[in-house]
Amino acid sequence: MNPSDAASALVGSKLRIALLGVLVVGGAVGGAFALGVLGVPSVAAVDNTFGDVTNETTEIETDLVVSNPNPVGIGLDGVSVNYTVSMNDIEMAQGGREGVRVGTGNSTLELETELRNDGIPPWWVSHVRNGERTTVDIDATATSERLGRGVDFSRSREIQTDLLGAFNSDETRPVNADSLLADDPVLYINETRGEWGSVSETETPIEMAFTVYNPNPEPYAVTEIGYDITMNGVKMGSGQTGEGYVISSQSTETVEFTTALQNRRLDDWWVTHLDEDVRGHQVTGLRIEFYAVIEFPGGGEVTVPLDALTYEETIETDIFGEGDDVRNGSDSSGGEADGDNTTDSGTDDESGTDDGSGTDDESGTGDGSGTDDGSGTDDGSGTDDGSGTDDGNGTDDDTQNGSDDDGVLPV
């Protein structure tokens, strides 16, 4: 054999060996996936924030963290991720991406979806019917087409409001007519009560009752009580009673009537609720103003603004717990203003899959190490750091117990 033939044979042998090595490695990796020795990519975290808001839509910006527990990233370009945001089981937004290629450890995907504002009225109806409680559910799935398997991730956040609680009062308030027809105060309001009526798809009624005292020696007739309701300046409803009341001399009378929010205007309110320039991000000022038309014994009539009964309440929400990170179980809701009562809980359901190692690599941590250091402490400051436990059976339950604020509302 001449030198050139020997060199060619040597080079050919090296190429065949290299090719064989690639095939062996590729086959080993593919076989490992097929046999379930390597783990299935999963969703480690889903963080949502509100983006741009128009009159028709609300942008939801999502950072979706995909965790690959394997030492290699090859062959993972068949991963697809999908997620859904629901409020009281009403689907508000849905998004995802196909053909995702991820490396080892954690990879963050930036996604954008749109929430249609006309979905706000149905959610509001469910919120009031549910005792002013909303459960925000975020469900995500990472699916490997190569393995034909997927891993589910879920996160829940409860929001509670009390829009009418502060209206219930036993405080005595005078009603002054500022009129030459009668001496002030013409009446006293000794008690106010309010509760939600039977909410429909079109309106949210508020059943109200005033206990009115007439301190004067003559009876007065209240022929009409009217109201105007605004939320961040958006007119939500107005109206007046359909019947009058006679308040006898030095006696009390309970005046009952119904006000109502017009649900068709809730999507207009929603835009202002998310607009930082109005009152702040996710902040609303609720205002109910009243007036009464009083008829005096001499026949005169006067319209009296019931300024002492004007009801104002601040509604603050943190629907997504913006800034929360599922991976470390922190809850930023403790920094919210009074009124936003929330509880977070998250679970990572591996759907019975096992990476073959006997350990759970789908950790809640962001370092891709497969280690779940989820211990948390509650220092009483309003921040609730969740605690996570790994039972080693392929299920990672990350439950965070949030503490309620001492105020009244969110949405």
UniProtKB/TrEMBL annotation:
Query: Which processes are annotated in GO (biological process)?
Result: response to desiccation
Q: SMART domains from the xrefs?
A: WHy
**Which Gene3D superfamilies does its entry note?**
Immunoglobulins (2.60.40.10)
The answer to whether the entry has keyword Acetylation is no
Quick one: where's region Disordered? 317-411
Q: Where is the composition biased (Gly residues)?
A: 365-391
**The protein's name:** Water stress and hypersensitive response domain-containing protein
| Originating organism | Halorubrum persicum
